[in-house]
Amino acid sequence: MFDKCLGCGQRLPVDSRARAQHKRHCVKMKTLGLTLRERHAEEERERKLREQGRAERVLAGASQDVHMEVLAGDPEDEAVAGPPSSQPEPPQVSSRGRIRKAIKRFKDFLPTSYAGPSTPCVAPNAAQPSCDPSPALSIHSNIHPDSQHRPADDPHINTPPHAVSSTSPDPLEPRVPSEEPVPDPHTSWVKYQSSTNAFGLYRIFPINPKRDPDEAEKPVDSVCDPTSFRLTEVDEEQAPLVNESPIGEGDDPPPDSDGSVNVKPESPPPYAPFPNVSTFDMLYWQNNDSNTKSNSQMNLLTRGVLQEPGFDIKHLEHFDAAREVRRLDDYIEEADSSPFSANDGWIRGEVYVRLPKEGVCHASEEDTPKFTVKDMWHRSLPQVIRAALQRPGMKSWHMIPHKLFAAVRPVKSPASASSSSTSARNRSPSCPLSQSSSSSSSSSDSSSSSGSSSTSDSSFSSDSSSSTQFLSSPGDDGIRVYSEIYNSDAAIDEYDRLLAQLQQDGDPDDLEYSMTMLCLYSDSTRLTNFGPASMWPLYNYFGNQSKYERVRPSLHPAHHLAYIPSLPDVIQDVYTKIYGIPATAAVLTFLKRELMQAIILLILDSDFMYIYTHGQIIDCGDGVRRRDFPRFFIWSADYVEKVLLACIKYLARCLCPRCRINKDHSIGLGTKADIFRRNKIREDSDDVVHRITLARRWIFEEGLPLTSVYLDRLLGDLSLTPTRSAMSMRLREHGFNFYSLFVPDFLHEFELGVWKSIFTHFMRILYAAGGDRIQEFNKRFRQVPTFGRVTIRRFSTNVSDQGKLAARDYEDRLQCFMPVWEVLLPGVDDRITTDLTFDLCMFLSLGKLRCHIPDTLESLDDVAKAIGSDVRTFAKKTCKKYDTVELPREAAARGRRDARLTASKGKKTSSGGGRNRKAFNPRTYKLHSLMDYACTCRMYGPTDNTSTQTGECEHCRVKRLYERTNKIKHVAQIARHTRRADKLHIIKGRVDGWRTELRVKRFQDNHPRKRPREQEPHIPAKRPQVSMPGDPAQDVAGCAPELHYHIADSRRNPIDIPNWTFANKGDPALKGFLLNLHNHILTRLTERFGPMPSTSEDEQALGEFSFADRSRLVIHQGRMYPHQILRINYTTYDLRRSQDIINPRTHGDIMLLSDSDPDVDGSGSNHGFEYARVIKIFHVNVRLHGSPMGEFERVDVLFVRWFRVDHLVPAGFKAKRLYRVEFTPTGDDDPSFGFVDPSDVVRASHIIPAFAHRHTEELLGPSLARNVASQSPEDNMKHLDFRYHYVNFFADRDMFMCYYGGGLGHRGNARSKAVDTALDDEDIDSDWQDVDAELTDLAQAQAAEEEYARKVAQQPDPVLRLVPEIANGTGGVRAAIFEETEHDMAGNVDDDPGADEEGSEHDDGDEELHRSMAQHVDDDGDEDEVLDEYALENYAPP
């Protein structure tokens, strides 16, 4: 009985007579009863109207006598069903007045190759009915049409070809073939097109490649995230397949019955140079990537060594590790195709630099004294290239660049309805479309899984023959996709120039010309946390290799080229011995620049320049003979390294290594003036070379000081240094502009640059605002839930202190910053800072995409412009309100710097012990670089191709190798260790291939009926192992990637449902639990067995069933079996396979597809997803009487608590706010709790509490539903929930693309239309519109500049106009030097020899670079030089 009246809420008396009297006289109770009766009457009328409408539709269909079946997602649905209604459908209401959650069924698709259709993922534990065709993928609907392409209905445009199949889910309209090949009008060759995969992707090649690795057979685990699926770290490409020799030298026969390898007599065994395979296994285990022998390493020893086929303990009777290591170091192979070449080793060389002295003249630069730097360890670059291309692992490399496209209009082809359709898979790869065969047909195999422990055959394989089709014109392409370096514009353009060369004399016509894409990385690093040990490695990566392999250090993608030595301390002794005085700081800086260029000259020797011009013929590891030409594309480095390599001054007047923009103009980011200025790119022109040559002649032959004002006049307007680039000296004659190598670095320049500086100033503002804002800020961050395995980690207790953090820590802070920062600042300041933070999140998400299309690149440009506007508004309006000073950590770091300066120079600093003022400085190179990222992505692919993160990972390997040395002359020892690791890695691939042959031999022995060799099953050689369902370690290792979800098979700790619900009968979460569970299961069973007989179709559509139908459902023993973890596998936007783990205790939030269409205006009214928090994961065994179910079957269920989207606040990309959700209150029309089919879960969701709105106890009373993720014990005891939450769609890149739209791999959850992401940057502050009136017409300005350059070029020596004292004086350079020296002695310059004569802040680049390089490997956490870049206090006074 109720204790309170439902109408007025008063407490009811205990006496039954008094209680009844109160109910009769309570007016509000009568009103409530009337309302309920009216609601039931209204529901009854609606039910009758629905039945009447259904009957009318049935009669209308019978009168037409047409049987039509509309399949979900079919492109022809709209034509069959008619145009959609303009008014939204009313929400579905059950007979009890509850609104049913409209959840859309989710279909997961596996990534596929380019020759076959995609395979729908099968949910476990479900008997498979006849599957509907999968919904057609509409690339056009996911993204805005590219303005550069003609409309899709243009009669001159043909849609791209595809592999047509009778069972293909969404075939594309085939291209009409040409009668004869028509060459490209811009080149002398025809273009070939590959087949189109089920995701609408196809490739266009400038020539017909002899081998296309994307068309080869690949299992699904080759596109799996190694972190999510815990793949074994084995280079699977190194291991040959079944039909290949274990040592990669042809189709040798399988091993003999005794286990010996049947190879050619001259071929060494696969484990050579070791005497047996057991010795190799032990040595390989010793030299793996781990220095600590943990439990996992012991498991690897027992399972991966001692239990391997061929291992014999008797082989180790006389084992000596030192002897075997020497055997490995001395091992070479004489075969030309072997990667173990005697020439490919480390070379101990030396370089020299010239020593200038001011006032000392020499006859020429060659006569100047030189200083030799010894112990320069390097490798021959031509031999590195040859060895890399001869490895079997290069079978997955792309030696011919191509363009990647997505089909614009994937409509159903009429040929797909035919039983025998033309298949692009069966066309010959060596001829254009007009010559291809079109008589064969193809079929696709589908497989399913039933039960949690079963898997589906999801290896996305294809025929070895691929379709290459002729394009009638270059303009007939689809939507361009940018993903790798080998499909970037830079690779295509360079290969076009390469093919334009004349064919080498003597080359056969069928010899393929290939191009290796060299990507360099260099940076100094400390090898220990304490001590001076450091290294400066130079790595080379090959852009032909996929970036998904380059980021895995276990695959050894980095090729160590050189270990750059520092300038020895003995240089001062040598300089003093020659000139009598020590070298100045300016001289030392000059020598460091010269040393770097001398090392690059040593690497770019005559052998390399020969193959750069003429190429080298190599028998590659994939069996193709090629003439290969190396080309440089990228040199990844931080800003200090770029300055050193580009030979420009550090933070000088022109601070960018790519353009000539002035430092003072960098704040105009995104304006028209800024775009005009940054288009003046740096070029290795004759003018630059002449200036540097003239400056060097003055320095060495005339004795001009390096700090001379005349040098600054000559070089200062371009911020050049008197050092000639080695790249310029070697490659300029070939038309190579070395400035194009220095691409932006996302890690150092955005995450550790722009965002770190803005975050630091946010903290200064919180300190200046006072109160407990800093404490509240730290408290909120501590309550932010984690996400994924390593996506978003737990934040530290004191986030504002920053501490010693990596780039990933700043990335996590930016992704979670908005809910934490909310209303910490008042009014307009909160809006300005939140807008800036949202745009920074947008730039982070777009900038780190691993796959781009034109729309995302245009959005990246727009976001960069918006950030420029936001930064200017923030600096001009918000920063002026607060008197900001140094943070406590900054003050402590400054004190340590001053102490070091005092100890080194012996003079005290003038700064006191307090905290100095610290203003926000937007005039930085890193902010200026934001507009360069989109252009870089168009040229070289996404930023993960150019980021220094890959090189930083290789540094970790070098540090592990340092621990294996004796710390004496460690550079040489590390060089030997890297060579050993590379050799062992190659031998490991050979041994794995040999063991694969053993497994094949055993398989053939156990199966007498042998199939032909070409039809033998593909048995991978040591493929990455995935723990399958049913494995005892399945909760640790993960599940098979073919499944969409996985729940363990455990039946431990069963729960009796009636007893459990009775024990918690007061819990509002369990109200109607058993009834709703029956309805949920029956709803899922109707999809298999059809409608239930005792319930109307309308009621079944609402998820409600009659008592008679519910009685047919039997739950075995009334028990449910709980589980702790649900694993969700999904295909990412870039066609990779990844996994989310749903754990109610830690990560319980999920997202599902909404049954209604998402909005297109970004208002947040409906964005296509529903959200829930998982309370319990369990399965039940059920049986439905009177159905084909013979036995009890398992049904997996999620018990969830629903969120609902708050439509009262603006949200989305246009509003620049996150979507806000709240728990559905109990007693509301919307259901608060419910059940979900795990196969409908799209992904885990990162939902962060809205800390500014505090807690509430109105949503739910005491309940077990709070014993889940993101609930503290204190809140659970007080029965509190956060009033609102925010959906963090910036959690990772794939999550962002789910909301943004345009993900190529998002077939199952593809948005019908991309959201409107227009950024309000149209109103740029007029203060920054500083384009001069005569420069508004850019064409006139360019013409005027060219005319001026033409007139200047007619002068005898145009650069001498910058130094009229030398050009017009009587004494020339020496007289100018004497005059300058007399002027200095008069006291007109600073005593510091490194200071600049004019005292300009732009001309102190030499001294700044000297200090930066001296502290470049400083790892004490101060990050002095990075902070100094943002320490200019000249912009925003209080």
Q: Helical region count?
A: 42
Distance N to C terminus: 67 Å
Number of strands: 31
Query: How much helix, percentage-wise, in residues?
Result: 25-40%
> Could you tell me the mean pLDDT?
75
Shape: globular
**Biggest beta-sheet profile:** 12 strands, antiparallel
| Rounded radius of gyration (Å) | 35 Å
Structural class: alpha+beta
State which percent range the strand residues make up: 5-15%
- Poorly predicted regions: 57-91, 93-99, 115-189, 232-265, 409-476, 1010-1037, 1160-1164, 1312-1338, 1385-1438
Describe the structure.
The protein is of the alpha+beta class. Helices cover 33% and strands 11% of the residues. It has 42 helices and 31 strands. The strands form six sheets. Strands 1, 17, 18, 19, 22, 23, 24, 25, 26, 27, 28 and 31 form a twelve-stranded antiparallel β-sheet that branches. The protein has a seven-stranded mixed β-sheet with strand order 4-5-13-12-9-15-14. Strand 20 (1126-1131) and strand 21 form a beta hairpin. The longest helix has 38 residues, at 27-64. It is globular and about 120 Å long. The C terminus is likely disordered.
Defining key terms:
1438 residues; alpha+beta; 7-stranded mixed β-sheet; globular; disordered C terminus
